[in-house]
Amino acid sequence: MYARRRRAYFLMMGGCLVLFISSWAFVRLWSIPAAISMCVIAMVIPPVAAIVANRKGPEDRWWDDPPPDPRQRTGKENPANPANPANPANPANPTGDPESDEWWDELDGRKRRR
After folding, report:
1. Is residue 103 included in any domain, yes or no?
2. 52, 84, 89, 93: most buried by Cβ count inside 10 Å?
3. Is residue 47 part of a domain?
4. Residue 38 in domain
């Protein structure tokens, strides 16, 4: 099933390129409104091709996938993370270079210049 979706994606994207290139290569010589309408149709094809290629099929058992492990989340996603910039009680670990730490603190607005 995956091969059929991939083939459909490439056919749709190939059709998009054919429409776009042919519209401005030779169709514009006969009719500019037809060339513009071909480009509009070519503009709609890529999102449709992405939807077709990424949809789940009946053989995809996505409901059997285990839930994500919350311990693997980082940054703003995990409020218990000590390096979380949104948690002021636990600032990020210093880099070990005092000059660099001061510079980053100034950029982050932690220490205001006087």
Report:
1. no
2. 84
3. yes
4. yes
How do residues 38-92 score in pLDDT, each as one tens digit? 999 999 999 998 888 888 777 777 667 777 676 665 555 555 555 555 444 445 5
CB-neighbour burial class of residue 47 (10 A; exposed 0-12, middle 13-18, buried 19+):
exposed
pTM: 0.49
In a domain, 114, yes or no: no
For residue 112, CA distances in Å to 55, 72, 85, 104 come to 50, 33, 17, 12
Total structural domains within the chain: 1
Secondary structure element (H or E) that encloses residue 99, with its range: helix 98-108
Domain housing 53? 2-58
Mean pLDDT across the chain: 76
